[in-house]
Amino acid sequence: MTWIPPLLVAIPLLTAAVTAGLDHVTPRRLQDAIVVAASAATTALAFVLLWHAESREVVHWFGGWQPRHGVALGIDFAVGPLAAGMCAVIGLVVTLALVYSLTFLHEAARLYDALMLVALGAMCGFAMSGDLFNLFVWLELMAVAAYALTGFQVERLGPVQGAVNFAITNSLGGYLFAIGIALIYARTGSLNLAQIGDTLSHGPAGGLVIVAMTLLFCGFLIKGAIVPFHLWAADAYAVAPAPVCAVLGGVMTDIGLIGVSRLYWTVFDAPFGHGHAVGDVLLWLGMVTAVLAGTMAFLQRHLKRMLAYSVVCHIGIMLAGIGLLDSSGLAGAELMFLAHALLTAGLFFVAGILHSDHGLIDELHLHGRARGCWAPAAAWFAATIGLIGAPYVGIYLGHGLIDEGATELGRPWVLALLWLGSALAGAALLRAGARIFLGWGEADDPLLGQALEEDPLERDVLRPLLVAVALAAVVLGVAISVVPGLGQRAEYAADRFQDRSGYAARVLRGHPFPATPSLPVTIRHTSVESLLYSGGATVLACALALVGLYRRRLPRFVTVAARRTLALPIHVLREVHSGVVGDYVAWVTVGTAFVGGVWALLLHG
Amino acid sequence: MSRQVRLLLLGSGLLGLGALFAWAIAGLPAFGDYQGPYGFVLNRIVLPLRHTTNVVMGTNFDVRGLDTMGEEFILYASVVGVTLLLRDETRTRLAERRTRRFRDDTVRLVGVAMVGAGLLIGLWLMAFGYITPGGGFQGGVVTAGAIVLLYLVGNHRDYRPFRNEHLLDPFEAVGAGGYVIVGLAALASGTAFLANLFGLGTPGMLRSSGSIAILNWASAIAVTVAMLLLFAEFLETYVVPLEPEDAGS
Amino acid sequence: MSYLPFAVAAWICLVGIAGIATSRNLIHLAICLTVTQSSSYVLLLSVGYVKHGKAPIFIGTKLGTTAVDPVVQALTLTDIVVSVVVIALILALALDAHRLSGTVDPDQITDIAG
Description:
The structure holds three protein chains of three kinds. Chain A is 72% helix and 1% strand. Chain A is mostly helical. Among the domains of chain A are: 155-274 and 568-605, no CATH class; 277-447 and 528-553, no CATH class. Chain A has a two-stranded antiparallel sheet with strand order 1-2. The longest helix of chain A is centred in the first third of the chain and has 32 residues, at 157-188. Chain B is mainly alpha-helical. Chain B has one domain (42-88, 101-240). Chain B is built from nine helices and no strands. In chain B, helix 3 (55-63) crosses helix 4, helix 3 crosses helix 9 (211-238) and helix 6 packs parallel to helix 9 (211-238). By secondary structure, chain C is mainly α. Chain C is built from three helices and no strands. Chain C has helices at 4-22, 26-47, 70-101. Chains in contact: A-B, A-C, B-C. At the A-C interface, helix 5, helix 6, helix 9 and helix 22 of A face helix 1, helix 2 and helix 3 of C.
């Protein structure tokens, strides 16, 4: 079965080259079919790989360069169940987006398809790779495809601005990452993750390793849109076409977190794993991201921008789960990723439907316009409930596992902050949904700032297909919490992922895999606290949504007090998210220096 | 955010980053004191195992061939991306005609000589890439540069075939896709993806190194054509398609 | 002296980032990005240097002579392509920005904010 990992990369890339190269030769329908088939085939193979990876580590050494005497020479793909699961979800979301785009986008179809397939191949390669520089190559490849796809609608200035901010910030992250690679290479003389981990587990880890870790992680955190590196995300997602946003927001941003986990548990666990310093910084960054992005989501009126902040909020929760550094936290982040990818994709799909129906993407302008559109409304509200994490819906199981991890480590306040974040983001989405699909609330709200320019209308869409794809994504995403056996398998996958020495032994020395325990096929239960927090968050989200809708009807003393306390912070937040790339780069610099400084203080003593 | 606040943030960030860099540099082995095993091992084994005298190219196309495949596709994606971004559906460009005609024969003579020399050097770098210093990329870039020079010293007519996307696109697909197909062929024959399949020949001769030679050419073609396509895309934004009047130059 | 190349790499990186953050022209910004990236090349190549080492090309040289690290050279080649690509995309975006708004000043291109 070791022949599957290369195919997950080769099939999308080869198809991309062939379809764009043969653009003028083959008929359009055939090309569409080939593209969707390639993406579906990749997804199917990923599922097969997932099934096999449960019982062994599937390792493929490229070019036949097996390690000699424990020294890795070639590049490897080392696939456990976690990596294979990621590939499967990535493939699923991209396939759904490609089907959606069949009728949603009409111009430059071949170029678009080629870039989407390239992004798919690069993301799968990234999830599977066990080599540090190879991670960088796939990171850059998916980034290049993403920059171009973001600027797809070149007729307006907004997409150009979004693409520019995206390109510059993320490229800078990539370059910092490359410097980190050089530093690690100088210290260890190897580029293979398992071998670097082995080398670093002997000997002291001085400033060089700490700075390298900072640069490597910050490169990924920029991609993963974590505060303060997140400023580009809203600009980019506001202007990309809906199916592109589904892929970018659903899976590509989360890739940054997959990278962080991989790096930590194959490399930096060795020198720094005895304490919690590395994880604590990630935990705090995650929590701040969740709350801040949730607040920003509430202040938006442009649907895709609101969804962008919702994505960032959930990424923050996932990073917090990873930062707990125990297997419940990682398993929770995994499950959240599964649900979040599908639900966010579904929401972006619905936003696209609204846009094509009415030519508008602004919550206030759409006030009451979609009354009677039952299917999109159902999809929107179901996905929102799933993203808030109501009991046993959508991200609930993942979030519950993160809660368990936090409680086990004696940090119960983490639960409160993370549920607050998802409640805030969910409140924004509920408010938007109520305004658009139910016609509730006032038609104007100065709190939400100025309207952003509307994008041109796409006519001639096959609406039932769009609705079907949106519903499919949402139904799958909502069901994640109740799939029997998924919770236990996620925990098992997380356990294996975190076993650094086992991974090194299997990859470098070909040790066989110990027998897999047989996992139960039942619905995993979570703690009572999670149920309570989840219920509380749902109630809070509904309450905040109502406040957002009917703000003017609150008693005067409440509104005056709120204005006094909240006006300045909101103004500052808006100023910081300025849309100017120079500001973003300044924040990246400050953020990297700050994270590095904190780790220097905590780890060097 | 005002510019002052940005400069303040930037200044403090750069100071912090600079301090971190200084701390990291202090922990580096001294310049010239490379210790790691990877480079030494490869210097020893690539020639005997793959009959490639240029170990850098041997590393690029064989030991770390997957990275190069990714990089081919980065180039490919950028060409597709630039085409996507510069497609102008409405074609509302100003109808400026810029016909350039160098009347100075000296310039044209020197230019033609440079084009010829550039092409030769580029082809030599490509062909002998895995034997002597050079390689697919380097050769591809030099060749593309020489062809672009043709645009500078010649006129539109001379350059027209190199701007024809319908002609160049299939070559780009062959370059990038060919790389993957070589890899898949290795996979299909039972070994690993991108394993070296073909006869290894004698080191130092053109017929050596097996798949490395083929991949070298695939990447050379891909890089040349990608550079030409990129240049063509940018050129189109400024130059109106040829009018019949241009024929009389 | 033995740390000079590394210091140069660090300096290039910081100067490049300063240029990016204060730039008033997208084309200038793209060049600054290249400058920042070149710091990673300098660092990689310096890390791989072996004192008295020859180039890792073994035609006319006996196998076993001290040679510098070929891996960092291969990595730098890949890195250069990445930089070319990003410049191409940002230049294309600059052209689009100029066509749509008449300016290439990133501070002026603020269609979306908040």
